[in-house]
Amino acid sequence: MSKIIVVAPEFCAYGGAHVLHRDDLGTASEDLPDAKVASLGEKRVINPELLKPFGKLRARAWARAARRGIRILDGYGQNPEWAKTVVQSIQEVCQEAQQHADHIVNNWSALVNDWANQNPKWSDMIRKSAPPREWVRDRFRFSVRAYPLGLDVLEDMGIEDNALLGEMGGLGDRLVAELVDAANALWKEFLTREKVTSRQISPLVTMQEKAETLGYLDRRAAQVGTDLGALLKTLPPKGPYETHLPAILQELRKVVRLGSQNEAVAPATPEHTDDTPVWACA
Q1: What sign for the dihedral angle of Cα 167, 73, 224, 189?
Q2: 68, 230, 258, 261: most buried by Cβ count inside 10 Å?
């Protein structure tokens, strides 16, 4: 394995929440805001529904990085021949996120007033707590970073005792482990279904794309990509797929067996999750 391109989306979005102070609650201790306005020590200065798209867009950007990549460092390693396509795909998501952010910033005062009018009892608190428009604008940042990573560079630098060397050297085994896990999950999914739809075939397509694209990391993965590609060509575009189920299960079983053939296959690194709050940079 000579080189990969690490692709990492960066999503920072304003969360619309600020610290709730004692003075915000007024004189009556029992006079507490509705949960939609304040909870867990935070107060919201605009309708939180307006910010939900950022979470979905962030997840979409990471999914595009993961589709043909393998987790490493702060992103997903990509085949150099595919990296540009992956980056452009993520940039499309970034542009969509930026357009929504521009809408919020350009209409900031009106959005704050709308939220205050929807919650008249706490309108003063909402208006006083809302930050300036320019401050909000600076909270939004959507981009994608891409940089090359190769064993030859580290070796030329004379770096031998480095965990990254071991991680990069084991990418092929980790890729196979991911394929084994995916095949095992699909095997169980197909066994429990009487009817197979395009929705169940879609993960099979994703699995084939990853194996084919990153096959240069490991010959076993390359063979998986070839075999699944041949299988998919025999499937009708929109079904029915039930008559093809034996062939599908046979190919999946072949992939699952790769896990038992080589005990050295490392467990797959967990995929990027959405546990990080939408307002955090990730």
Answers
A1: positive
A2: 68
